[in-house]
Known about the structure:
Number of domains: 4
Shape: elongated
Distance between the termini: 80 Å
Oligomer: single chain
Number of helices: 9
Helix content: 25-40%
Strand content: 35-45%
Strand order of the largest sheet: 13-11-17-23-22
Structural class: alpha+beta
Amino acid sequence: MQEAQRSKGRAETMLLRAMIRYCRGTVHFAVSGPYPERFLNLCAQGGLGLWNVRQQPGGLSACCALSHRRQLEYYARKSGLTLTVTKCAGMPPTVRRYRRRTGLWIGLGLLAVGLLVMGQFVWQVEVTGLESLSTAEITDALTEYGVHPGAWARGIDSKTVERKMQVRFAGIAWISVNVEGCRATAVIEEAVIPPAPVEDGVPTNLVAAYTGFITRIEVFNGNPVVRPGDSVQAGDLLISGIMDNKMGESRTAHARGQVYALTRERVEIEIPYRQVKYTLRGIARRRYLTLFGVTIPLQAKGAPDGPYRLERSEKAPGGLLSLLPVRVTEERYLLLNEESVTIPLEEAQRRAEKALALREKEWAGVTIQSRNLTGTETPAGYMLTAEYLLERQIGQETPVQTEEREAALPEE
């Protein structure tokens, strides 16, 4: 990790050094004659920075800042060497070469003004930290509150936007809207929804939601009226919210607990022999260019006719171009042929078993004790019938009726 950071630091230093040298201009030269070491000593004493120093037959070659060219000539004469300038590069020679191109300088001036004006607006909006919330909903809300591509950066009141977003979305625990240059970033921390509070002050009974045979009871509060092995019907009382105290007086309470029972379940899955089959017949692409928040279609055609499946992808330029407000969106239409086919009995059986397995996965907290499968062929398709014996939690809370509460009150 430290080695990677050091490498990154060296790369940034080299890039900064190259930019400075380009702005100052660079002169590539060669000196020839006896004892070039004296020339190097004079340059060091005069504070001239040389780089890319290489020895060559009869002398040496090096590079120096363009502003030190006169000193190089002076030190070469003083040391008795011949100085030959091989190349001048960088910004000053380029400016001197194109100084008579009036249109070029006007264009550069307009470009500078345009970049200065564009820097006052937001061209990229990013949302981070989302898990369960929808990115589209958050982006639409930010757009409604003024945070969108093309918005004036100084006109965005981050505190007001943050407050409105927290009021609008209960799932946002914390949000920070930061505007840096042409980029606006919304960092969101989603709220952890606490479990629903248990209202112990509301008198309730625990009744059966299914018909079955009781296997086990876990009473947390209340008076149980059934035992393991009892048979109950849907709606029967399992744990009463009316309890007696040590004085023999009755009172109402919030009955809580878990009552497990063996119940029966019947599931029917029907798979018709006639099915619709889709085959890929081609791919159509539509591209859109988003520039400064405006979407421009690159093709005149719209959505194709017939059945299709749409896939959308967005690409942004890399490197320094990623800072520009430019995005290319590609829509891929997978064109499909629709045809009616007849599947064999074996395929219908396989699909029915797969659908039944998906149905069983929906039974959270249910234990399958036994399963009896029956397959039936019909003129239209295949019918798979499953008879289950399940162990499940059948208790559900219902409020204590008014007459029950009155009967439980002690007589004065």
